[in-house]
């Protein structure tokens, strides 16, 4: 309770900081993120590392740069999403750039990561020698730029060294650590000072130099070295300045797509850092990032730096859908679709139909831990289907569903429809480990666990959405009765008594409880099988389970825990207080949470803020459903299920400025934000119908703007 009281007192003091304006304003979004620069007063400590560096991070969804080193020896570590080793079966470091400035030995250190513009600025002073260094990874191309300015009163000599792999290079080189092996990746690298062909420059006071890098893989170009050299030769200081303007334009457009503004500025900053991290490491048309994003600083990455399907690969994308950045998730579907043939083959090996996937996969249909490392879990493929469900729910993009989404969903359906057993009027799940290796399964054995709650939740959501998807596409009509039967007769969530209260049991038979992780609530979220329209008894059990588990800090579960709590409206003040406490205690300087592992998945807890401000679970929109009514807040253009962009404000306990843009013309179902008051509907800013009731449905047209106002 002390944490809650402290948070409330802090929030009361901050109330004056929220400016009142219409939600949804693009300029609001820019001004808010502009206030959330990340400051660094010392160099990074945990770099190079086999996990997540604590350094300032830059990226364009493909190339990543992590910045380290003291002022006299700055280091820019370079990674790239598509650079995976054959022998390591993991992403590998590309190399690094070093700025050696002996005159700055012992200099002061001050650096900033400007998320709005996606640049890093460092200022280093040693008596009358002052150097300002700016770096950015081009949002629109395969370039890295390092701009060096002498802002002191005497000349400063800078020596620049480039390392490709472990080899020092003069200006360019080709890196292929697995040369001669099938499917080996190549990197072409070219770099130079744009003002000189030398790697040493003496900067006079008030002058600048730009060091440019062009970087391409064999995925980008058939001859990546020649491509890099050609690209570098086309650059000049003037062109670099023009590219920087375009780079800022890309990020400005990105930030204008949504915003949130709340009273706790630490939590708010983490919401923005979540968006920044994901836009920096994942981009349409590129290879999906692994556990550590594109910030690879070692060739021995923990857990292969791979795509773990029992939550890790999905988790970084949790917040992208409702934050109106669903396109960031597109590399995910490419990676999963590339596993269909592999999964079909593995399923046949076990005598099953459809697709069956192990825990560990990589890009291009690979499996770093071996083909059958499933740890007794049958749920990996249906867990992998969740982002497919979300992308379609939030975008209603039928063209994507037909071309990219439905094929994998159908393969998962084939597996489960044939795998489920029907006994005594219900469908049951046999031999499916709730945790890796539980129920005696080990790495590739058979688990004795039956009806794990996570898989039950995943299947409930999966089959509901298969019905909707097939109807929208006009396919598989003859299969729908079976799917409906599974939804209606799937076994209920198992329960047990603990400390005098009914809580969920992890499985019906087998594993009853687990003392870490958050699989005990993942059927709520991310599986999405329980929400505010669920049976009140089920919601009560969900609250009891949260009390019993109390996993407010969990190395593997923080990505899902807070959102699950919000989804069932569990004590909003407690959620905010614990979220703030976790950010205060477990954030690295770059605002990534660190628990000893986890990587980019640890950007995900901020999704809880979206769910507290706006829920659209199963297509029902609720405004501020799990938010303290005495805490002012507002949001703009959050994306809701049904392809709606929604904006609103809560001020002095009253919901205001409700606006909805219907992208696809779907029916809009809303829980009345003003309880039993009548509501005036505006269509494209003109008065339309008046509605009343606890909830109501509104027909919409594609592109139509809907406004709501209480009467």
From TrEMBL:
Residues 273-497 form the Glycosyl hydrolase family 95 catalytic domain. The keyword Nucleus does not apply. PANTHER family: ALPHA-L-FUCOSIDASE 2 (PTHR31084:SF0). Keywords: Signal. The keyword Signal applies. This is Glycosyl hydrolase family 95 catalytic domain-containing protein. It comes from the Bacteria. InterPro entries: 6-hairpin_glycosidase_sf, 6hp_glycosidase-like_sf, GH95_cat, Glyco_hydro_b.
């Amino acid at each position: 309770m002390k944490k809650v009281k402290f948070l409330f007192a802090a929030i009361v003091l901050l109330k004056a900081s929220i400016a009142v304006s219409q939600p949804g304003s693009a300029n609001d979004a820019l001004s808010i993120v502009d206030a959330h620069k990340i400051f660094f007063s010392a160099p990074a400590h945990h770099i190079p590392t086999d996990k997540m560096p604590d350094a300032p991070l830059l990226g364009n969804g493909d190339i990543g740069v992590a910045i380290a080193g003291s002022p006299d020896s700055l280091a820019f570590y370079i990674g790239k999403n598509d650079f995976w080793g054959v022998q390591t079966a993991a992403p590998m470091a590309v190399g690094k750039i070093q700025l050696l400035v002996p005159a700055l030995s012992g200099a002061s250190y001050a650096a900033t990561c400007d998320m709005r513009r996606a640049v890093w600025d460092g200022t280093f002073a040693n008596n009358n020698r002052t150097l300002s260094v700016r770096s950015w990874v081009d949002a629109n191309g395969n370039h890295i730029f390092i701009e060096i300015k002498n802002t002191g009163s005497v000349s400063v000599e800078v020596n620049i060294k480039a390392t490709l792999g472990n080899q020092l290079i003069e200006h360019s080189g080709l890196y292929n650590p697995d040369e001669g092996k099938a499917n080996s990746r190549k990197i072409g690298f070219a770099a130079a000072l744009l003002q000189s062909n030398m790697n040493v420059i003496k900067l006079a006071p008030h002058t600048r130099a730009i060091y440019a890098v062009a970087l391409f893989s064999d995925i980008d170009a058939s001859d990546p070295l020649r491509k890099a050299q050609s690209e570098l030769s086309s650059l000049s200081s003037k062109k670099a300045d023009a590219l920087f303007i375009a780079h800022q334009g890309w990020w400005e457009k990105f930030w204008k797509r949504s915003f949130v503004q709340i009273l706790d500025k630490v939590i708010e900053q983490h919401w923005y850092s979540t968006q920044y991290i994901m836009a920096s490491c994942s981009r349409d048309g590129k290879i999906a990032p692994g556990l550590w994003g594109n910030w690879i600083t070692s060739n021995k990455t923990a857990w292969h730096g791979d795509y773990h399907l029992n939550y890790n690969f999905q988790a970084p994308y949790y917040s992208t859908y409702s934050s109106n950045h669903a396109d960031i998730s597109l590399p995910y579907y490419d990676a999963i679709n590339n596993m269909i043939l592999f999964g079909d083959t593995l399923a046949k090996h076990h005598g099953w139909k459809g697709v069956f996937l192990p825990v560990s996969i990589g890009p291009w249909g690979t499996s770093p831990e071996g083909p059958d490392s499933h740890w007794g879990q049958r749920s990996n493929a249906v867990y992998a289907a969740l982002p497919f469900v979300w992308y379609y729910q939030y975008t209603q993009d039928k063209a994507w569903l037909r071309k990219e989404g439905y094929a994998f969903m159908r393969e998962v359906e084939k597996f489960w429809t044939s795998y489920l057993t029907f006994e005594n009027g219900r469908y049951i799940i046999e031999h499916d480990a709730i945790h890796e290796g539980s129920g005696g399964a080990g790495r590739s054995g058979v688990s004795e666990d039956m009806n794990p709650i996570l898989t039950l939740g995943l299947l409930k959501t999966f089959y509901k959405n298969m019905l909707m998807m097939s109807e929208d596409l006009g396919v598989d009509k003859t299969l729908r009765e079976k799917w409906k039967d599974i939804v209606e007769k799937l076994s209920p969530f198992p329960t047990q008594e603990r400390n005098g209260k009914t809580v969920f049991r992890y499985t019906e038979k087998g594993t009853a409880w687990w003392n870490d992780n958050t699989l005990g609530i993942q059927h709520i979220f991310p599986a999405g099988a329980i929400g505010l329209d669920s049976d009140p008894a089920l919601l009560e059990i969900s609250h009891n389970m949260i009390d019993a588990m109390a996993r407010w800090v969990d190395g593997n579960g923080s990505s899902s825990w807070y959102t699950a709590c919000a989804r069932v409206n569990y004590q909003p003040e407690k959620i905010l207080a614990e979220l703030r406490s976790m950010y205060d205690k477990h954030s690295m300087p770059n605002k990534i949470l660190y628990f000893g592992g986890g990587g980019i998945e640890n950007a995900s807890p901020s999704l809880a803020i979206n769910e507290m401000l706006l829920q659209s679970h199963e297509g029902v929109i609720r405004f501020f459903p799990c938010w303290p009514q005495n805490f002012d807040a507002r949001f703009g253009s959050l994306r809701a299920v049904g392809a709606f962009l929604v904006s609103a404000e809560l001020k002095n306990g009253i919901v205001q400025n409700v606006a909805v843009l219907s992208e696809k013309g779907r029916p809009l179902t809303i829980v009345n934000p003003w309880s039993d008051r009548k509501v005036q509907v505006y269509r494209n800013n003109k008065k339309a119908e008046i509605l009343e009731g606890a909830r109501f449905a509104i027909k919409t047209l594609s592109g139509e703007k809907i406004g709501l106002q209480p009467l």
